[in-house]
């Protein structure tokens, strides 16, 4: 059996003082804590925090700035360059650039209500299944690239979460408050040859999580 592990990582905390749903908008960088999270995960994978050094041979990130910044210290820890894959980008969202809520947020404006008509698709953004399809295509490419070793794909909360739901044969529609995909977390897919044999979840930067940004769609 050839064992390969693909780690789907959510980027670190983002500097977002306005609390907007930033989606695919450019210019959203990591916060100071987000940078610390990225380095903590790099140390964890490289065995610098007491555990074993992982066999990472590829680091690939979404093209968005926050993902690229998260990937950089991990790649440096293994002497690698950061690759870019458009397929692991954040999901498209109608509410991108807006605050989301019933107070001063988008929900107080009737013109936005039609976008909430179907939570199962969802009607406000890129369909869940399309996200899963593109993420799994990127996983397959990474699995070929890192066959017999490990790769890290730095992506975003929703694409990572719905990919896990799909692989666990669960409904793709879900309560966003119940996602197990914190900032800087690792959802690890373990393969033997071409067969998925396990899914793990870890939070190497958990000590930095209290107070971290949890805006849905981040």
TrEMBL record:
The species this protein was found in: Cellulomonas fengjieae
Protein name: Histidine phosphatase family protein
Domain of life according to the entry: Bacteria
Gene3D superfamilies: Phosphoglycerate mutase-like
SMART domains recorded: PGAM
């Amino acid at each position: 059996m050839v064992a390969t592990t693909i780690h789907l990582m959510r980027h670190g905390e983002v500097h977002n003082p306005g609390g907007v749903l930033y989606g695919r908008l450019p210019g959203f960088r990591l916060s100071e804590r987000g940078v610390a999270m990225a380095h903590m995960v790099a140390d964890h994978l490289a065995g610098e925090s007491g555990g074993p050094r992982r066999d990472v041979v590829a680091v690939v990130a979404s093209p968005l700035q926050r993902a690229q910044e998260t990937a950089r210290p991990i790649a440096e820890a293994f002497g690698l360059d950061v690759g870019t894959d458009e397929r692991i980008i954040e999901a498209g969202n109608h509410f991108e650039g807006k605050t989301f809520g019933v107070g001063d947020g988008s929900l107080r404006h009737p013109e936005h209500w039609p976008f909430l008509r179907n939570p199962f698709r969802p009607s406000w953004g890129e369909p869940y299944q399309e996200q899963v399809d593109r993420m799994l295509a990127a996983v397959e490419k990474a699995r070929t690239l890192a066959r017999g070793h490990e790769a890290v794909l730095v992506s975003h909360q929703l694409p990572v979460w719905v990919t896990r739901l799909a692989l666990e044969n669960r409904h793709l529609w879900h309560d966003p408050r119940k996602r197990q995909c914190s900032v800087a977390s690792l959802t690890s897919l373990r393969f033997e040859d071409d067969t998925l044999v396990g899914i793990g979840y870890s939070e190497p930067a958990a000590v930095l999580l209290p107070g971290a940004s949890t805006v849905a769609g981040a």
